[in-house]
Amino acid sequence: MKRLLLALAALAGAASARADVTLASLFQDHAVLQRDALVPVWGRADPGERVTVTFRDHTVSATAGRDGRWIALLPALEASAESAPLTVTGKNVVTLQDVVVGEVWVCSGQSNMEFPVDRAVNATAEIAAANAPLIRHIRIDHAVADTPADAVATSGWLAATPENVGHFTAVGYFFARDVYRKIGVPIGLIHSSWGGTPIESWLSEFTLSDPAFAAVHARWAKDVAVFPARQVAYAAEKAAWDAASAHAKATHTKNTLPWPQPAVGPGTPYQISGLFNGMIAPLAPYAMRGVLWYQGESNAPRPAEYRALFPALIRSWRALWGEGDFPFYFVQISSYESTDFWPPLREAQAEALALPATGMAVTLDIGDPKDIHPRNKQEVGRRLALMAETKVYDIPGDASGPVFASATPEGSALRVRFTHVTSGLVAYDKPLQSLEVAGTDRVFHPAEGKIDRGTLVVRSPSVPHPVAVRYAWSNVPQANLFNGAGLPAAPFRSDDW
Q1: Beta strands at 69-74 and 58-63: parallel, antiparallel or unpaired
Q2: Most CB atoms closer than 10 Å: which of 78, 307, 386, 473?
Q3: How would you classify residue 254: left for phi > 0, otherwise alpha for psi between -120 and 50, otherwise beta?
């Protein structure tokens, strides 16, 4: 009898567990919902269970399918800083507290997006001054998955206060702070990034199945084949580095060993599609305004590949959410003394501007040649915010620095024309730097530039008949060409050699 009672109790407990209505991972206390758009709310319940969602004056219902999944659509909501509960009712009741409505942005990429506020310039003052309870941030925990995950672990939604903001994505927070000051509605940041990761980790398996990406699969197959051996080697290299570091600290000397490169293989953040499956797929279809992206350093050795992968990522994420061409704003990699040659990767990033509703923040002038993680994230966030303010929120202003349009021979010079120069061209710390021209021999020589009525006249005594010009075409250029709005020109070249 005792065994029977225990068995019945276990069955009752299992039935109760199955009966519980649950919400997707992003639906937690203090959440920010997207305004002016249908708001999907989803989760799991018993198959066939009727689930009701109530928020403010709206009540909507859905029925769980055979797999237990359900999704209900709240109608478009007006922005409001006045919080309200969101209640989900099935066989049980789940209530989220302090839910507001405003603008939601997804922040993703590698370490420069992951870079926290507490490491930024003036971090102590920035943290102390943070008093923005309507700027909220949810961090997605690192996760690698072989197939699209159904759920993610998170930090929960946290308000921008001195207690919390130090751990926010710095780029995302400074973006949100500037936008909030202009539009005055709640801002939600969904932060899903992982340092040191290549773009192929953030692309779906379906997208990478395109034959155009055969080289990605071939490289991955090689990595998988040597993965066990690389794991052993990495463990030894890391142990040696740790020992050398400890010795350097004790003797006040420098650790000269290079940082060991982790093994690339299954279950690591370098797994192709692994981060898309584990950290992006579970976020959709959470209603949001757009994406902020800061990534590229890990793909610098393969710029030609990135030229195809980056627009493929933008298209695939837009397809995942199914909300058309939502804004996708990204940061062009900055100045850094890398062993790789970065200008072609910057060019590959810029080519993605051919896609609709995209924008690029140029950061050559605020990089750190000695640190791949420049600390001035305030200006990075501001430049991204300018794009959202002008393109999304219809606030007048300039959002881009000068962008190369054409180069026309004029005697011994080239006249260079730009877009985004209605406020004129400006050379900070004259004269203009990082200009080069080449003749038909395709050999580039340093050149001087003169601003002339919103154009640039470029010449070099070493090139009597120039046919090509380029600007800021090095890892750490002295880039000092701006428009009148104080935004830097993007690096460019007129040739395709």
Answers
A1: unpaired
A2: 386
A3: beta
Distance, in Å, from the CA atom of 331 to the CA atom of 341, rounded to the nearest integer, reads 18
Determine contact, residues 110/204, Cβ cutoff 8 Å.
Answer: no
3-class SS of residue 99 = strand
Burial category of 47 from C-beta neighbours within 10 Å (exposed 0-12, middle 13-18, buried 19 and up):
middle
Strand partners, 481: 427
What ranges in 252-364 are assigned the alpha helix state H?
Answer: 274-275, 303-321, 343-351
Tell me, what's the pLDDT at 14? Answer: 43
- HSE-CB of 409 using CA atoms within 13 angstroms: 11
pLDDT of residue 255: 87
- Given this model, what pLDDT does residue 5 score? 40
pTM higher than 0.70 for the full model?
yes
Helices (H), 56-110: none
Strands 32-34, 93-109: pairing kind? parallel
Question: In whole angstroms, what is the distance from residue 301 CA to residue 303 CA?
Answer: 6
pLDDT value of position 256: 86
Radius of gyration in angstroms for the set of CA atoms belonging to the chain, rounded to a whole number: 26
Q: pLDDT value at position 8?
A: 37
What DSSP element (H or E) covers 96?
strand 93-109
- E strands, 319-475, in order: 328-331, 358-361, 403-410, 413-419, 425-427, 435-438, 444-446, 448-452, 455-459, 468-471
CA 484 to chain CA centroid, Å, is 28
Sequence-ordered list of residues with C-beta below 8 angstroms from that of 469, at least 6 positions apart, any chain: 407, 414, 416, 435, 436, 437, 438, 447, 458, 493, 494
Angstrom distance (rounded) from CA 379 to CA 385: 10
* Residue 78 one-letter amino acid: E
Selection from 184, 217, 181, 221 nearest residue 200 by Cα: 217
Q: Which pLDDT tens digit goes with each residue over 25-81? A: 999 999 999 999 999 999 999 999 999 999 999 999 999 999 999 999 999 999 999
Per-domain residue ranges of the chain: 205-272, 403-493
Separation CA 77–CA 287 (nearest Å): 11
Q: Can you tell me the distance from the alpha carbon of 262 to that of 367, in angstroms, rounded to the nearest whole number?
A: 26
* Residue 256, phi-psi category: left (phi > 0), alpha (psi -120 to 50), beta (remainder): alpha
Q: How many CB atoms lie within 10 A of CB 78?
A: 10
Phi and psi of 434, rounded to 5°?
65, 30
pLDDT at 257: 86
pLDDT in the model for residue 258: 86
Listed as ranges, residues in the chain with pLDDT below 50 are 1-17
